[in-house]
Amino acid sequence: MAQSKPCSPACQSFKCAKNSAMYRRDSVWCRETEEPCTIANCTYSMCMKRRMLPEGICGETVKRVTVEKDVDDFFDDSVKIKGKALRKLGDKELF
Question: Which of 9, 23, 24, 93 could staple 78 via S-S, CB 3.0–4.6 A?
Fold first, then answer.
């Protein structure tokens, strides 16, 4: 995660759930703790776009990884059924 960046309280999408974030000249202060706002340790920090990941990492800066799978892998396993569907179909495996 070398490309990921920590979320900052100066972001437009950042919101404090307790409304205790106070914007000062050069930083954002928390009224609850009387310290600079640290998103990674705060339980009340949230992102309005719902992009914040654990430990305060901004989800918009993380690059998504896709994995290619073969089509044959999806059809190799049979489906096991239980209950009412099993009684209706009998002792069959569905493919």
Answer: 93
* CB-based contacts of 39, cutoff 8 Å, min separation 6: 6, 7, 8, 9, 14, 45, 52, 56
With cut-offs at 50, 70 and 90, classify the pLDDT of residue 29.
Answer: confident
Query: Measured between alpha carbons, how far is 54 from 4 in angstroms, rounded to an integer?
Result: 12
Write out the E strands in 2-63. Answer: 14-16, 21-23, 28-30, 35-36, 45-47, 52-53, 57-58
Per-residue model confidence as pLDDT tens digits over 32-90: 888 888 888 888 888 888 788 888 888 888 887 888 877 666 655 566 777 787 777 76
Residue ranges per domain, the chain?
Answer: 1-95
> From CA 55, how far away is CA 64, in angstroms rounded?
18
